[in-house]
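hey m, so remember when u said the tokens were messed up on ur end? i reran from scratch. heres the input so u can diff it against urs
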Amino acid sequence: MLQKILVPTDFSPQAESALKVASQLAKKNNSEIYLLHILELPVHLNDLMSSGNSAPAPEAVFFMQQTHKKFEEVLASDYLEDLEVIETVSFEDVHKGIVDACEKNNIDIIIMGSHGSSGFEELFIGSNAEKVVRSTKQPVLVIKEDCDIFSIKDLVYATNFDNEDKPSLISAHKFAQQLNAKLHLVWINTANSFKTTSETEEKMNLMITGLPIDNYTLNIYNDINVEKGILNFANSVNAGLIGISTHGRKGLSHFINGSLGEDVVNHAKRPVLTFKI
């Protein structure tokens, strides 16, 4: 169950798209939404706020009032009606603010917007986004534009079918169940890490044997690199959502065959869901 959803916001259209998706999931799961804004104050004001000064500078009060006004405008949105939305402001840097909010509030999933100009380096909160994906234990759902999350009927989950990926695969299956979607497990075969069909099928079957999953397909897709393979396979099955795994110690660049880079999130208009291995 997704009981607590964190939505970082900069009040941009992309952040609002993420909040709309969060509201859809919250209504189904009776979830709480934690709407987090990282308030980037000038250095001298940030030092005052972090020191616990009982009388913050007038400029800091002004920034707080402006942020609260934006919160009130967002909270008046029709799509948030009857939902519990908890507004919260952090004076920490983006990365630490999100990580701390997750730990403090026992967050189950982070849903965040992306401008999509340069992949993970330009998620709406900037270059700290990859740190967020690496450092948080929670799944991260990246949204680029308004979408009806429950209209998604096919979820592609790209995996190397190693045992360490089992927990993420189970999480991806649970998310697919939330959407009543079919899960398409795919191995992307490339020249640099070529495996025969029989080798891959054996690895697939060894990995999924005994796992509590259903309503899925097993697929092998050949392409020139992993990124293009994921996107092209997702297009071939008309998937509404792509799922990938990340190694916290290695970041996104070591996904699957060692070179995911940022292309999947950068080029995929569809939502992307990341899971921590």
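this time it looks ok to me. Residues 197 and 220 are 8 Å apart (CA to CA). if urs says something different then somethings off w ur setup not the seq
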